[in-house]
């Protein structure tokens, strides 16, 4: 029996032929009502950073000398805030599977580099919420970044985030593929992903884009 991860409603999951043939479990983890509370980003949006309600490029992207192509799936709305309160801050690790199929569709065949959390944060929380999403969706990734402790991003102002020092460093001498996607759970100012990009670019990747579940 499968129940919705958010409201515990019973899910009537009908397996496809390929699910049966390959002995796979269905990736449906949310009921239709709960899934509908997450608002998909639709056009118009910035063609560079996916900022909603923008035609062409937003002012932030126009004013930057170097921009990174970003994609996102959902608006960071009230449903998303409630979700991450349970997942990240209350430690409901089951919720890592909420977006399995979304991630599989968006990132299959990609060389993914997830945003890490610091060792201190990992010890407190017990898991990295970003890699939790990927492992639940059965997506492989390149574990090549580490992060110094900088305090909760959610407690910082926009200006503090924009002016922060780069906390990321390489943890592996692994030769990186030319084309990679850096993955994070939430895009706020873009500073986190830009800092990660700088490190990955120095490591040899030349075609770097970024992706987040929420924007």
Automatic annotation (TrEMBL):
Classification via PANTHER family: DNA UTILIZATION PROTEIN YHGH
Membership in a protein family: Belongs to the ComF/GntX family.
SUPFAM superfamilies: PRTase-like
Name this protein carries in UniProt: ComF operon protein C
Superkingdom of source: Bacteria
